[in-house]
C-alpha cells in the first residue's frame, strides 16, 4: 500500500474514531475530573485527587520480555494504582484474563526496586472497559478478587482487583450517569450532563491538529508493523511447511528400509539436522 493510501486510511480512521478508540480514550482520561468520575462510578468509592506518573505509561523491564503500553495509568492520594483500558475485541480464548494477570505482574515488578520489601506493593486495580460481554452473564461490572476456595469468606489480602466493565450489560445496580456513559460507549447520544461533557472532550481532542498528527502517525506505524508481522508469519508458514514436507519424505524413505544416512544424503541435509528437526516437531521418524 502506498504512503498516500496509508495516509488516507489513517485520516478516515481519525474521522470515524470515537471514545472506543484507545488513542481517544487515553486523551479524554487526561481530564482529571472525568477520570476521577469514571473511577468513582466503576469502583463505588470516593477519590479526592489523582496524578499521572507518565502521560503514557510504558513498562519494559527486560529485553527478552513482552513490554506493554498502558492506556490510562494513574495514582490517587493514597498511592493506589489504577490502570484503565478500553477494549473492543475479545482476542483469543482467555486472552483478556491472562492479559490482566500480565499487566498486574508488570505493574508490581515496576513498583519494586532492589532492596524494597514486598509490603511496599500498593493496592492495584486493573480495569477493562469492554464493548462486549466477556462472560456472557449480562452484568454491567464483573469484579474479581482472590478468595480461598475452601473458605470463600477468607480473602487473600493481596490488594489487587481485576474489573471488566460490560458496555452491553443490563444487570447490576449503577446510577443513571454511568448507564448513560455505557450507552455512549456503545455509540448512543449522551443525555446526562457529565456524559455530554465526556462527549465534548472527545470532540476537543479531535479538533486539535497535534492530536490528529499523532493519531495518524501511530496508525500508519501500526499498519506497517501489522504488515511486517503478516509477512513474517507467511515466511514462517512456508518454512514450517518445508520442514513438514522434509520430515514426511524422510519417514517414507526410512519405512522403505533406507538408512538414515542414505535418506539424509538424498535430502541434502545432515543426519543431525534431521534428528533436531524431528525432535523440535515431536515427530517419530521410525
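Sequence proposed for the structure above (286 residues):
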Amino acid at each position: 500500500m502506498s504512503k498516500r493510501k496509508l495516509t488516507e486510511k489513517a485520516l478516515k480512521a481519525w474521522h470515524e474514531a470515537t471514545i472506543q478508540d484507545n488513542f481517544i480514550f487515553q486523551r479524554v482520561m487526561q481530564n482529571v475530573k472525568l477520570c476521577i468520575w469514571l473511577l468513582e462510578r466503576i469502583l463505588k468509592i470516593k477519590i479526592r485527587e489523582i496524578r499521572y506518573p507518565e502521560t503514557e505509561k510504558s513498562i519494559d523491564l527486560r529485553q527478552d520480555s513482552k513490554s506493554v503500553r498502558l492506556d490510562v495509568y494513574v495514582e490517587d492520594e493514597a498511592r493506589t494504582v489504577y490502570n484503565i483500558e478500553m477494549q473492543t475485541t475479545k482476542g483469543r480464548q482467555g486472552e483478556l484474563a491472562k492479559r490482566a494477570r500480565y499487566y498486574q505482574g508488570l505493574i508490581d515488578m515496576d513498583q519494586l526496586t532492589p532492596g524494597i520489601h514486598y509490603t511496599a506493593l500498593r493496592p492495584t486495580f486493573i480495569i477493562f472497559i469492554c464493548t462486549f460481554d466477556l462472560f456472557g452473564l449480562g452484568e454491567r461490572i464483573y469484579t474479581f478478587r482472590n478468595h480461598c476456595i475452601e473458605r470463600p469468606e477468607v480473602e487473600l489480602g493481596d490488594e489487587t482487583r481485576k474489573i471488566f466493565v460490560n458496555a452491553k450489560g443490563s444487570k447490576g445496580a449503577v446510577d443513571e450517569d454511568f448507564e448513560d456513559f455505557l450507552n455512549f460507549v456503545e455509540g448512543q447520544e449522551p443525555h446526562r450532563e457529565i456524559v455530554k461533557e465526556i462527549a465534548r472532550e472527545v470532540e476537543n481532542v479531535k479538533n486539535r491538529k497535534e492530536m490528529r498528527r499523532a493519531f495518524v502517525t501511530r496508525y500508519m506505524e501500526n499498519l506497517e508493523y501489522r504488515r511486517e508481522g503478516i509477512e513474517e508469519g507467511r515466511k514462517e508458514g512456508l518454512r514450517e511447511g518445508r520442514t513438514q514436507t522434509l520430515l514426511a519424505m524422510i519417514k517414507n524413505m526410512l519405512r522403505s528400509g533406507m538408512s538414515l544416512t542414505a535418506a539424509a544424503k538424498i535430502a541434502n541435509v545432515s543426519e543431525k539436522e534431521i534428528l533436531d528437526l524431528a525432535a523440535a516437531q515431536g515427530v517419530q521418524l521410525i
